[in-house]
Specification:
The structure is a single chain. The chain has 224 residues and is an alpha+beta fold. It has 2 domains: 145 residues, no CATH class; 74 residues, Alpha-Beta Plaits (2-Layer Sandwich), CATH 3.30.70.260. It has a 4-stranded antiparallel beta sheet with strand order 4-5-3-6, covered by helices on one side. It has a two-stranded antiparallel sheet with strand order 1-2. Helix 1 packs parallel to helix 6, helix 2 packs parallel to helix 5 and helix 4 packs antiparallel against helix 5. The radius of gyration is 24 Å and the shape is elongated. The mean pLDDT is 77.
Length: 224
C-alpha cells in the first residue's frame, strides 16, 4: 500500500509541477494582456502532463499478460483527438471578442481526469480534480498578486459633437489609467456608446471608481 501511494504521489507531483510551469507562462502572457492567460496555460500544462503520465503508466495491468497483445494507449490517443474537436467548438469568436478558451482547456483537463480514473490511477485522478477546482475558483477571484495588470472596461454614453470622450481620456491619463482600445457604437441616431478597454493602476479601488463616475456622469458602467 505504501509503495502504491508513493508511486501515485510521484505521478501527481509531475502534474503539479507542470501546472506551476504553465502558471508561470500564463503570468507572462497575462502581463502582456493576451487572451489566453494564467488559468488557460495552467490547465493546459496540467492536462498535458496528466495525459502523458496516463499513456506511459496507465496500461501496465493490460500489457503484462503474455497471451494479450494490444495497444491499449491507442484508445487514449483517439479520445484525446476527439475531445480536441469538442474543445475547439467551445471557443467562440464574436468579431474582436474571443470567449471560451479556459472552458475548452477545462474540458481537455476533465478528459484526462476521466482517463486516469478509468485506468485505475485513483489518487492521480482525484488529486488532479482538486487541483483543477482550485485553479478555476482561485483565479476567478482575480487576485492581484497573480496579475501584473488590472484590466477592465469603461462604458460611456455621449452625443455626437460633445467632447466628453476627450475630457474622459484626459481624466484617465491624470489618474494613471492607460487606454488600450476603444469601440464606438452609434445609438438612436445622435447617441454614441464608447467602450474603452483600460488598464487600472494596482492601487485603484472601488472608491476611485465611484469618484470617476461622479466626475463623468456620462459613464454608465465600469468593470475591473
Amino acid at each position: 500500500m505504501k509503495e502504491f501511494l508513493l508511486e501515485q504521489g510521484d505521478y501527481l507531483l509531475r502534474v503539479l509541477v507542470a501546472g506551476i510551469c504553465g502558471l508561470i507562462i500564463g503570468y507572462e502572457r497575462e502581463s502582456r494582456m493576451k487572451l489566453a492567460g494564467v488559468r488557460t496555460h495552467t490547465i493546459i500544462a496540467m492536462a498535458a502532463a496528466l495525459m502523458v503520465v496516463i499513456s506511459k503508466y496507465g496500461f501496465f495491468d493490460v500489457i503484462q499478460y503474455d497471451s494479450v497483445s494490444v495497444d491499449a494507449s491507442r484508445i487514449a490517443a483517439g479520445v484525446v483527438t476527439g475531445i480536441s474537436f469538442l474543445g475547439a467548438g467551445i471557443i467562440l469568436n464574436r468579431k474582436s471578442n474571443i470567449s471560451g478558451i479556459t472552458t475548452s482547456a477545462g474540458v481537455w483537463a476533465t478528459l484526462g481526469i476521466g482517463m486516469s480514473i478509468g485506468a485505475g490511477m485513483w489518487v492521480l485522478g482525484i488529486g488532479s480534480t482538486v487541483m483543477l477546482l482550485v485553479i478555476q475558483c482561485l483565479f476567478h477571484r482575480n487576485l492581484r498578486i497573480f496579475y501584473a495588470n488590472n484590466t477592465g472596461k469603461i462604458i460611456l454614453h455621449t452625443q455626437k459633437g460633445e467632447d466628453v470622450q476627450q475630457k474622459l481620456a484626459d481624466g484617465l491619463a491624470a489618474r494613471s489609467i492607460q487606454t488600450v482600445s476603444a469601440q464606438l457604437k452609434v445609438e438612436n441616431g445622435d447617441g454614441i456608446q464608447v467602450c474603452l478597454t483600460v488598464v487600472f493602476p494596482k492601487e485603484f479601488t472601488t472608491q476611485d471608481t465611484l469618484a470617476l463616475m461622479e466626475d463623468y456622469p456620462a459613464i454608465s458602467a465600469i468593470d475591473f
